[in-house]
Amino acid sequence: PKSKMKITINTSTASFDPAATCTDEQLADSVAAYGREIESGLIAAFPGAEIEHNVRPDDVTYGHEITGIDGDSYEDAMREVQEIIEGVYETGNFWA
């Protein structure tokens, strides 16, 4: 059986707001809203994929990981996920 595609988004609260411009509560709300925006973008681009959003206080090595696909599809998906994440961050509608 084909394994299901899974997309994991890793968000570091340390690098999310490096200038520490918001309170802990605002940061938590902003990160949650950011995750929801990314998730809706990913669901639209990859229907049926499992999506996980890991939020950690420390820096993250990789912004996202994908399992369940390989080859050219993997490279294309990694690029597309990166573009979705960057688009959400640049638009900035998630800030509390």
Question: How would you sum up this structure, described in words?
Answer:
The chain is α+β, with helices and mostly antiparallel strands. It has helices at residues 13-16, 24-45, 71-91, and strands at residues 6-12, 50-56, 64-67. Strands 2-1-3 form a three-stranded mixed β-sheet.
Largest sheet: 3 strands, mixed
Which spans have pLDDT < 50 for at least 5 consecutive residues? none
- List the total number of helices: 3
> CA-to-CA gap between the ends?
43 Å
Average of pLDDT: 92
Which strands sit side by side, in order, in the main sheet?
Answer: 2-1-3
Based on CA inertia axes, which overall geometry fits?
Answer: elongated
Strand content: 15-25%
Helix proportion:
40-55%
Q: Using the CA coordinates, give the radius of gyration.
A: 14 Å
The counted number of beta strands is: 3
Which structural category fits the helices and strands? alpha+beta
Order of helices and strands: EHHEEH
Describe what is shown at a glance.
This protein is an alpha+beta fold. It has helices at residues 13-16, 24-45, 71-91; strands spanning 6-12, 50-56, 64-67. Helix 2 (24-45) packs across helix 3 (71-91).
Which descriptors would you attach to this protein?
96 residues, alpha+beta, three-stranded mixed sheet, 3 strands, 19% strand, elongated
What's the topology here?
Blueprint: E1 6-12, H1 13-16, H2 24-45, E2 50-56, E3 64-67, H3 71-91
Parallel strand pairs: 1-2
Antiparallel strand pairs: 1-3
